[in-house]
Amino acid sequence: MNDFKKEVLEGLSKKNKSLSSKYFYDSEGSRIFQEIMDMPEYYLPKAEMEIIRNQSEYIAEKIRKKELDVIELGAGDGRKTVHFLEVLSSKVTQLTYFPLDIDESILRENENLVNNQVPTIRVKPMKGDYFLTLSQIRQRNIPRVILFAGSNIGNFPDSKASEFLEMIKKEMKPGDYFLLGADLKKHPKMILDAYSDAKGITARFNLNLLKRINRELSADFDLSAFEHYATYHPMTGAAESFLVSLKKQTVTIGTEKIEFGLHEVIKTEISQKYDQEKLIDLAEGSGLKWDSAYSDTQSLFSWVLFKR
């Protein structure tokens, strides 16, 4: 049994059903997510790009060394990072960029973009799960900054976020930096609109997970019998997405049968929003030292710099 099928069956067999958000991104899911990135309600990409355009100079001054490795986790196509690398390259004599991603084709796009725009940088793409590929460059005796951009830290529950930061700390030597993207708490309506937009793009994204299970695991989910539902709790900062069963039904996955009650939900995603206090607690709990934070003009998003 492959990991996908195993995790799906385990998640749907629990009393409180759940599916992992990491399985959103098949080819169709990735295409829909690009639509989400372009939605007017989805504030995050614009806010993060504002930070990169306006704050890269200050961050580069903080982390500059004669030699430096920049290791980006889940690097994607590099469009977000290339401006930051361009600024940093003017302050570092020998800069090596390690984009880490599971998608080989997107790593080729990343390498081509960075090579064309910042030819002075050495680019060394690494395909695979970054939990595994990070260890392959552990022995390089070069100062490093590990970059985890976007809001991916928010997909971890608190305990897992702490474990993740502890893992990052083990990959750092004294004086190394960790640069983390974090989505900040803001007006609850702005967050709800981003996760449940008027055109239903986020709903299609969520329901596509069931379509993928149908296609890859020989399942028979009736997509019209499930509905997307998003929530946000402004005190805890937890934005969550669910799929609601609109009737009592039985779904077959391969030879397994899963029962759903009327209005029973499947939790598909958590996206934690942070304030500075929570981020400091998270860092101190994992043994990292808070250095500085950089936000957009509306304080929607932040890049936070930690040091070991």
UniProtKB/TrEMBL annotation:
Residues 4-307 form the Histidine-specific methyltransferase SAM-dependent domain. The lineage of its organism: Bacteria, Pseudomonadati, Bacteroidota, Cytophagia, Cytophagales. This is L-histidine N(Alpha)-methyltransferase. The keyword Signal does not apply. It comes from Algoriphagus confluentis. Keywords: Methyltransferase, Transferase. The keyword DNA-binding does not apply. The gene is egtD.
